[in-house]
Specification:
Length: about 120
């Protein structure tokens, strides 16, 4: 009977801990949870893994006046070792790109106009 109690003293905290890990994993915020009506429309990444990683995102915004651009940009990944992440925000009511290029200017600037651009860089080590 004592061994059975000891098993439960170990199993119950372990089950609670695993339940918390599952809850935390599935309850992370996404860009749809942030004020502004964000939606990722395009993404491109360089294929080279030597040197810095370059990521370019295009995000449409349905409410540009009330949008929280910094909170949205915080959800996009940035790595160390000279990596760069650029997020271009576009008004959803106007044309926005669905294809990006890894080389500047990244999209057709004569056809699309970004309303905000945020650039994040990784730390040098």
């Amino acid at each position: 009977m004592k061994k059975n109690k000891r098993l439960w003293f170990i199993a119950i905290p372990l089950i609670i801990f695993l339940g918390y890990l599952l809850y935390d994993s599935y309850s992370q915020p996404s860009i749809k949870d942030i004020a502004g009506g964000f939606e990722e429309t395009a993404f491109v990444r360089n294929e080279q893994n030597k040197g810095g990683i370059i990521r370019i995102y295009a995000v449409s915004v349905s409410d540009p006046l009330n949008a929280n651009y910094e909170a949205c940009a915080d959800l996009f990944p940035v790595n160390d070792f000279n990596s760069t992440t650029r997020i271009f925000f576009f008004d959803k009511t106007k044309p926005f790109p669905t294809v990006l290029h890894i080389d500047p200017p990244y999209y057709d600037t004569t056809q699309y106009e970004a309303i905000n651009i945020i650039k994040r860089t990784g730390a040098k080590k």
